[in-house]
Amino acid sequence: MIERLLPSSVSSAEAFADVPGEPVHPGEQDLVRDAAAIRRGEFVTARRCAREALARLGYPPAAIRPGPRREPRWPDGAVGSITHCAGYRAAAVARAVDLAGVGIDAEPHGPLPDGVADVVAGPDELAMLARARPGTHWDRVLFSAKESIYKVWYPLTGRWLGFEDVHLAIDPVTSTFRGRILIDGTRADGGPPLTELHGSYLIEHGLVLTAVAVSCGALSTLGARVEFQASHRRE
């Protein structure tokens, strides 16, 4: 599923269930030593997906350790993202010569818990959601899109990006979104500042999937510059 949202240069892998008793990869045992069974299972499966995706790019299997914000630390020359939620785990990676960054997120297609929308969406975004055609949990789409944006933002800037620091516009006709960055988008790698990030979403099998990719030497890719039309957990 997730590959439908990503450029052809991205290698991805996904799973819809964990393998009972699957061992933790060497070098990652301490990361889930005290974790509950559910957390351990999603971690092992998601990391396996990441190694499968990396293998298609020619990388040998290796431990994938977390960075200071729990972001995966990829092998030299690779960029990518990992996501997991109930019933779904996935990873997407690319060579750094092909893309500057990749961010993906998966969420259950259901309403956000009470009060969460007020935290993740600003007044204009809440008004946008209120105008939306029923049948889709747009608050969850917005949340997932901002998660994908953060996952591609942090490795490129090394700075936190709060929900309030992104203004999101969604186009349900093209299943795309645009995130306008409201803070300094200077990149640590010297690339063009991140002022807007564009992505795509998919709603299928009870899931919301979102993806953002940043091309080398460009502001962003995936998605068009469109506004929402009323008719129509970070790792």
UniProtKB/TrEMBL annotation:
Residues 28-94 form the 4'-phosphopantetheinyl transferase N-terminal domain. Mg(2+) binds at D105, A106, E107. GO terms for cellular component: enterobactin synthetase complex; plasma membrane. It comes from the Bacteria. PANTHER family: ENTEROBACTIN SYNTHASE COMPONENT D. Coiled coil: none annotated. One of its GO terms (molecular function) is magnesium ion binding. This is 4'-phosphopantetheinyl transferase EntD (Siderophore biosynthesis). The lineage of its organism: Bacteria, Bacillati, Actinomycetota, Actinomycetes, Micromonosporales. CoA binds at R39, R47, T83, H84, D105, E147, K151, L161. SUPFAM superfamilies: 4'-phosphopantetheinyl transferase. It comes from Asanoa hainanensis. The keyword Magnesium applies. Pfam families: 4PPT_N (PF17837), ACPS (PF01648). Its cofactor is Mg(2+). Keywords: Magnesium, Metal-binding, Transferase. Residues 101-175 form the 4'-phosphopantetheinyl transferase domain. GO terms for biological process: enterobactin biosynthetic process.
